């Protein structure tokens, strides 16, 4: 079972260029035998574009998701990607996971909004989304969510072993890729696919360092600071097969 991760330059509001990049990446992933590609946070219309979030946000049945669904079905490769979602007068920092047939596996709204820009642009989500993918129970989180161990613990308690994380982690926060993500994976016997941007967008420089971390904290694949396409075979180790015992051994103190 192979998965792709695309550490991309930001779209910065160029929607059509973004779709071209998605199509090219899906074709490359499918050719390499991958069954899913994970893209960064708010790929449409761009992360550091608060001027566009509300103006361009689309519903889950809008043109963006319709076109992405058609692409996954045509190419035969799944896609996880972030976008600005409009729903009932609110805007959410959302992610969607589509399978190789264009069907929606999960639609998630970011719970932990980071910084004033996100809090002004978006309404926080309030629910996890889990789904079955390639014999594993999977879930979506977005960027800052993964930095809270409570979310990983809750998902692990629900049987999740695989988490896809679109992110827009800026320079200066490299410890998230180097320490937090591997730690979250090892603590709860998870495989975490953490897809970040590189380059700059409207004055914001991204950290890159995308990675796929296995349940032993070891990276299955890592990126540096440049545009990178990663493909890795996923670990199928379960919590019961892992050296991790935190999930069963935790004692809560009142």
Automatic annotation (TrEMBL):
Q: Keywords for this entry?
A: Hydrolase
Pfam name, any one: CN_hydrolase
Q: What EC number(s) does this enzyme carry?
A: 3.5.1.100
Domain of life of the source: Bacteria
For this chain, one GO molecular function annotation is: hydrolase activity, acting on carbon-nitrogen (but not peptide) bonds, in linear amides
The UniProt record lists the CN hydrolase domain at 1-236
**Family under the similarity heading:** Belongs to the carbon-nitrogen hydrolase superfamily. NIT1/NIT2 family.
The identity of this protein, by name, is (R)-stereoselective amidase
The primary gene name is ramA_2
């Amino acid at each position: 079972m192979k998965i792709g991760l695309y550490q991309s330059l930001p779209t910065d509001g160029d929607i059509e260029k973004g779709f071209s990049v998605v199509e090219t990446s899906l074709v490359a992933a499918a050719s390499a035998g991958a069954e899913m590609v994970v893209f960064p946070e708010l790929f449409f219309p761009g992360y550091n574009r608060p001027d566009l979030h509300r103006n361009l946000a689309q519903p889950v049945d809008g043109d963006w998701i319709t076109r992405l669904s058609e692409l996954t079905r045509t190419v035969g490769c799944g896609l996880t990607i972030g976008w600005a979602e409009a729903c009932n007068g609110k805007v959410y920092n959302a992610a969607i996971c589509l399978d190789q047939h264009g069907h929606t596996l999960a639609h998630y709204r970011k719970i932990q909004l980071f910084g004033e820009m996100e809090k002004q642009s978006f309404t926080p989500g309030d629910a996890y989304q889990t789904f079955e993918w390639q014999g594993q129970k999977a879930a979506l989180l977005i960027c800052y969510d993964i930095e809270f161990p409570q979310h990983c613990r809750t998902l692990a308690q629900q049987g999740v072993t695989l988490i896809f994380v679109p992110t827009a982690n800026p320079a200066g926060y490299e410890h998230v890729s180097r320490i937090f993500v591997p730690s979250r994976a090892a603590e709860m016997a998870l495989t975490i696919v953490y897809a970040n941007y590189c380059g700059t967008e409207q004055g914001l420089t991204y950290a890159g360092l995308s990675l796929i971390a296995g349940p032993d904290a070891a990276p299955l694949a890592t990126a540096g600071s440049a545009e990178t396409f990663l493909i890795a075979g996923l670990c199928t180790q379960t919590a019961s097969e892992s050296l991790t015992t935190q999930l069963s051994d935790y004692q809560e103190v009142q």
